[in-house]
Amino acid sequence: MIGVIKIKNFIIFLLLIILILLLPAAAAAEKDILVLHSYHQGLEWTDQISEGIRSVFPYQNEVKIYYEYLDTKRNFSQEYYDKLISLYREKARIIDFDAIIVSDNAAFDFIIEYGEELYPEAPVIFCGVNNLNKNFLEDQQDICGLVEKAEHRANLDLILKLHPALNKLIIINDRTLTGKNIKAELELILTEYEDRLNYEIWDSFTIPELQNRLLKMDQNNVIYLLVLNRDQNGNFISYNQGIEKIREVSQNPIYGTWDFYLGKGIVGGKLISAQEQGRQAALMAEDIISGENDFSGQIVDDISSKYYFDYNQLQKYKISQAELPADREIINRPQPFWERNYQFLYWGLIFLSLVIVVLLFVFYSKHQERQRIEKLNRELEEKVEERTKELRKMLITDDLTGLLSRRRILDLLEVELEKCRRYKRELSLLMLDLDFFKDINDSYGHQFGDQVLEKIGTILQRNTRKLDLVGRYGGEEFLVILPETDLKKAALVAEKLRQKIKNAEVTGRDFKLTASFGAVQFEKESSQQLIKRADDLLYKAKAEGRDRVES
Questions:
Q1: CA 422 centroid distance within chain
Q2: Taking every annotated instance into account, which residue ranges of this chain make up the domain GGDEF (predicted)?
Q3: Which of 10-14, 244-248, 481-485 is predicted least confidently?
């Protein structure tokens, strides 16, 4: 017993020693990385860069990621910058960061100017920086990163190839810091296309002015959308808002350079991926903080751009996929049958397997299972019979004419009259009766009489509006409810129907059908009183010689 206690104490002691040794190592392994964004959280470009960084550094204790946003798309005054640096001076005292990742030009310029003061000796990794003069960083050994290279040549060549009838290329850009840098890059490249490309650069406008200019564009113009985050008055424009405002007024094809416009209205292009830039910058940071590589002063061009196209836009502008680069990817492409129905097939197989298992169980259980199934079948048949009875009660049409039944037409009349009372609307009612219908039955038989009634039902349905309600009141009498109709118009409808009936031909017999009508307008009385007035006028029409309308 004593020996067991000694062994137990020894094991506990050994575990304590191991824990004590591991704690300093774990503490030493913890690293702090600051991600300094030029723009604001919620901007798609910025959020995608963060996603790329998080793909390398998922949520874990070993590496802690801190995010800061300069918000320069929406705030760009000198007064704002002065207050911003004061804020970051206070924040910089709290944590000594092991690495700084900066995205885009504003954050890059900020770290160049204040990095040594705020975060001394912390290596800086940048991404999303445009128009960077690499010579500028020759003496900056603690800075490395990726220069964002928009594939303007590839996109201009692509546009010229896909649109041989191109009249003019409209380049839409803004005057933000990023926009100015992109414009500087593009203007150098455009000099190579002077002889074969007619273009205009639009970079100073309000949104209404931009839309007005787009409305006047030639149908053979193509739009090359760069950056559209601020108008000439300094108003912020999100990526979604920018392309939406263009799409509202223009049917011209749009190409781009960044993937955040893909699927929102651009045909495509060789597109830069924010997520891939964030991932590459994070990989460099990972090597630096782990000691595997310091990347001192290493500046590389981002070569992650790929050709992407939107299937819906290709179809809209009748662009053949055969004309596209071989290494492209196409989004929104209709899925093959097997992919489109994968879940259905998957669950169908599971269901089929379950059915087989159930059947095997049924056969195995023999008599008892059969009794249980018979009982379930009886219960199911009872429910079906009950449901069938309910459905029969729900039948609302006249079997012979296809019109509303008497009960249904009267119910709907009550509903329409209530609407008239509540909303002070007009409503008229027509009652019609076939003339000498008894003679038709006596002379030609009831089957032929049924044919006549079917014919009348067809005439009434085809010559009334969708909102009108037509029903068989009984025998050869019919009701027509005319919502939003005064008596004068109702009389015209009745006259039209009278003429249609009179001119109708009934196959196999040479005689003329006629009908008498009573037309009344609702005057806040009950439905019975309204019908009574229509019925009185109907019989007046018959007394006056039939084949007429009384109102």
A1: 39
A2: 425-551
A3: 10-14
Distance CA 166, CA 136 (A): 39
Percentage of residues in the chain with pLDDT exceeding 90? 54
CB of 219 within 8 A of CB of 317?
Answer: no
Q: Residue range 403-425: average pLDDT?
A: 94
Query: Is residue 369 helix, strand or coil?
Result: helix
Question: What is the DSSP annotation of 14-64?
Answer: HHHHHHHHHHHHHHHH-EEEEEEESS-TT-HHHHHHHHHHHHHS-S-SSEE
Residue 519 pLDDT > 60: yes
For the record, the structure tokens of 102 come out as 């900066």
The torsion angles phi and psi of 258, rounded to 5 degrees, stand at: -120, 145
Domain locations in the chain as residue ranges: 2-147, 152-271+304-331, 337-394, 406-550
Residue 126: pLDDT over 60:
yes
Q: What pLDDT is attached to residue 364?
A: 81
Q: Which tokens belong to 258?
A: 């960044």
* pLDDT value at residue 369: 79
Retrieve residue 285's tokens: 């940071």
pTM above 0.70, yes or no: no
Give the whole-angstrom CA distance, residue 193 versus residue 214.
23
415: its two tokens: 């509903």
The CATH architecture annotation of domain 406-550 reads 2-Layer Sandwich (3.30)
- For residue 134, pLDDT beyond 90: no
DSSP 236: B
**Separation of alpha carbons 546 and 524, rounded Å:** 29
> Alpha helices, DSSP H only, in 92-235?
104-118, 152-162, 177-190, 207-215
Cα separation, 539 vs 551, whole angstroms: 11
Q: What's the topology of domain 2-147?
A: Rossmann fold (3.40.50)
Q: How many other CB atoms are there within 10 angstroms of residue 94's CB atom? A: 7
Q: What is the CATH number of domain 152-271+304-331?
A: 3.40.50.2300
Question: Do the first three CATH levels of 2-147 and 152-271+304-331 match, i.e. the same topology?
Answer: yes
Q: Which helix (H) or strand (E) holds 283?
A: helix 274-290
Q: Are 516 and 538 in contact (CB under 8 A)?
A: yes
**Backbone angles phi and psi of 349, in degrees to 5:** -65, -40
Q: Average model confidence (pLDDT) for the chain? A: 87
